[in-house]
Structure formats: structure tokens, C-alpha cells
């Protein structure tokens, strides 16, 4: 497979591409992660991912395959972003504990004038968590760069998640199996 460009600094996305043995370079450009009012929830991460991909494409001197993704956590039709601080992270996990939420990752793959766009949704159910468990996780793992204030592959996922329906790796930030299938169609 030809070397692609990953338009993301996410260590989890890098790890997933490495596990899939996809050669890649990381090129990231600062982009606005806001979105227009009225977008359907599943379209929001796609909108943001497209902006990331186009920002990188505009900086490249020759055409390469560009992969961009964005992940959002949704509870009761509300997007739960990255926590602003410790108290916000505690509040977010307190809202998620004992409940079902959705993790939606939008993916955009560009090559020349071709564009592949999709989103993937996984339902995640947290077990009830104690306040001490939530504080322990926040203080030890400091998930301030993670939508929903957690990472499924960390302690909170191992002990706190009762079930998932859908792609586990989507919750980590990239539905890598689908990405590989789409790359094979494109390359």
C-alpha cells in the first residue's frame, strides 16, 4: 500500500494505523473545529474531518492520499466535547456513568479529485461508577484531550464499560477496518 497522509495528531489514530500496517506520514494544519447550526449529529464529525483533510491537501505540492477523522461523543442528542478541566471531566463522566451514549467518528479520505466520506456509530454503555472511581481515573489518566473525557483502552474502559455495540476501534478514534477497506478501493 502506498504511504498515506494522516491529518491528525491523535496518538490513538497513529497506533491504529500502525496496527493495520498502513504506512503513513502525519501532516496537520490548524483548522477551525466549529460547525454550522442545523447539521445532523452524525454529519458534524464528517464536516470537521473534511476541513482537516482539505487544509492539509491545500498545503501539499503533489497529490497524496489524505486520511482525516474526527470523533464526537453524543448523550441525549447533545455533543459532549473534550473536558475543559478536572471539574468538567468529572461532570462529564458523572453524566455518562450508568448510561448509553454514542461515539461517532467521521472519516474523509481524499485522493486527487476523489473523496470517500462516511461516519461510524458505536453505542457504549457505562456501568455505574462511584465518584471515587471517576476522580481516580481523571487524576491518574488526565483525559483532557479526549471527547467524552475517557479512552476506552484505558482503566475506565476496562472496568467501567459494560457493553459496546459496534466497532471497538471506532471508540478509540478510527473505524480502522472500514478505513482499510476504503483505502484498498482507492489505491
UniProtKB/TrEMBL annotation:
First-tier enzyme category under EC: hydrolase
Any single Gene Ontology cellular-component annotation: cytoplasm
Q: Which organism is it from?
A: Pinibacter aurantiacus
Required co-factor(s) are: a divalent metal cation
Q: Where is this site: Important for substrate specificity?
A: 12, 71, 153
Q: What is this protein called?
A: dTTP/UTP pyrophosphatase
Question: What protein family is recorded?
Answer: Belongs to the Maf family. YhdE subfamily.
From the UniProt record, list the reaction(s) this protein catalyses: UTP + H2O = UMP + diphosphate + H(+); dTTP + H2O = dTMP + diphosphate + H(+)
Q: Name one Pfam family in it.
A: Maf
- What one GO molecular function would you report for this record? nucleoside triphosphate diphosphatase activity
Where does the record place the catalytic residues? 70
Q: Which UniProt keywords apply?
A: Cytoplasm, Hydrolase, Nucleotide metabolism
Documented EC number(s): 3.6.1.9
Where, per UniProt, does this protein localize?
A: Cytoplasm
Tell me the Gene Ontology biological-process terms attached to this UniProt entry: nucleotide metabolic process
Q: What's its job?
A: Nucleoside triphosphate pyrophosphatase that hydrolyzes dTTP and UTP. May have a dual role in cell division arrest and in preventing the incorporation of modified nucleotides into cellular nucleic acids.
